[in-house]
């Protein structure tokens, strides 16, 4: 039995190059090795196999019967290895467990409704979906894909933009009937501006009044720890909320929430990305299929500003 330290695939590749190039020197040039290194490797291979593979002379290169048989099998094995790598990276039928982490608002309103279509298209994939508003480390939670909304931090992970959603200030009809509709940014001083209880990348609500940029802090005695809670507070008429259109688009369509101060919007958006482990574009088929499916399904949504 060969030692585990022997790289048999490398030996096969070098020997196949010697045969296909017709000699040690030509193979060495193709492999960017020295002729002596190629010769020594083939010599070690012959010693390990206990058989002469080539007859060496200064004028010609000739395979032995054993060498011809070993070359034929090596070429087949190397081709099988290449095919296995292609299947493991991009060309295989998507199968296996796919662990996906997503924030609660996007997961509830968009990801979960897309799950039936993905499962129908890829029945061999077992989807493990976790919704959480905590920004997780994919390695720590053993996730394959994370859906992130908002600015990305510097990372060695791969990212693919799925969509973008413009921000909007909304309130329930009941709140506006009770407190009045704000017509200008200055009117917000007398309104409850619901805020989040966690640190945001940008503090306050931005507005643009002509050439003037304005940023107002949130106000009131109620805060939310996540976007879905913020949406529910707005639906209950407890104040104004500033959320992404992907989150409240259906509420606006159904008249449950009403956009306000749209003419003062700075037009800022929140990008939506799929984050995943990968290198050089080589991905397990299940990850590639899932990300491709999301990108296609989310394209040209009414709230997509990307």
From TrEMBL:
Coiled coil: none
Gene3D superfamilies listed in its UniProt record: 3.40.190.290, Winged helix-like DNA-binding domain superfamily/Winged helix DNA-binding domain
Keywords: DNA-binding, Transcription, Transcription regulation
Species for this entry: Alsobacter sp. KACC 23698
SUPFAM superfamilies per the UniProt record, alphabetical: Periplasmic binding protein-like II (SSF53850), Winged helix' DNA-binding domain (SSF46785)
GO biological process, one term: DNA-templated transcription
One Gene Ontology molecular-function label: DNA-binding transcription factor activity
Name used for this protein in its record: LysR family transcriptional regulator
């Amino acid at each position: 039995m060969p030692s585990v330290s022997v790289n048999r695939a490398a030996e096969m590749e070098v020997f196949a190059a010697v045969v296909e190039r017709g000699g040690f020197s030509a193979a060495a040039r193709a492999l960017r090795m020295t002729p002596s290194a190629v010769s020594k490797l083939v010599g070690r291979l012959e010693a390990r196999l206990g058989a002469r593979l080539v007859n060496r002379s200064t004028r010609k290169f000739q395979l032995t019967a054993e060498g011809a048989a070993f070359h034929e099998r090596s070429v087949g094995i190397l081709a099988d290895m290449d095919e296995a790598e292609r299947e493991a990276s991009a060309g295989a039928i998507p199968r296996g467990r796919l662990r996906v982490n997503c924030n609660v608002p996007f997961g509830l309103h968009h990801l979960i409704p897309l799950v039936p279509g993905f499962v129908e298209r890829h029945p061999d994939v077992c989807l493990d979906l976790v919704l959480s508003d905590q920004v997780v480390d994919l390695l720590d939670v053993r996730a394959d894909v994370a859906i992130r909304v908002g600015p990305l931090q510097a990372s060695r992970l791969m990212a693919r933009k799925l969509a973008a959603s413009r921000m909007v200030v909304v309130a329930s009809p009941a709140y506006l009937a009770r407190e009045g509709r704000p017509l200008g940014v200055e009117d917000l001083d007398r309104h409850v501006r619901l805020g989040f209880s966690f640190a945001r990348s940008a503090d306050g609500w931005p507005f643009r009044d002509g050439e003037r940029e304005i940023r107002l802090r949130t106000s009131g005695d109620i805060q939310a720890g996540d976007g879905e809670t913020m949406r529910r507070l707005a639906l209950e008429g407890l104040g104004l909320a500033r959320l992404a259109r992907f989150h409240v688009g259906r509420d606006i369509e159904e008249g449950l929430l009403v956009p306000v101060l749209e003419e003062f919007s700075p037009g800022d958006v929140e990008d939506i990305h799929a984050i995943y482990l990968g290198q050089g574009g080589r991905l397990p088929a299940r990850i590639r299929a899932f990300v491709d499916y999301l990108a296609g399904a989310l394209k040209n949504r009414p709230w997509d500003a990307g």
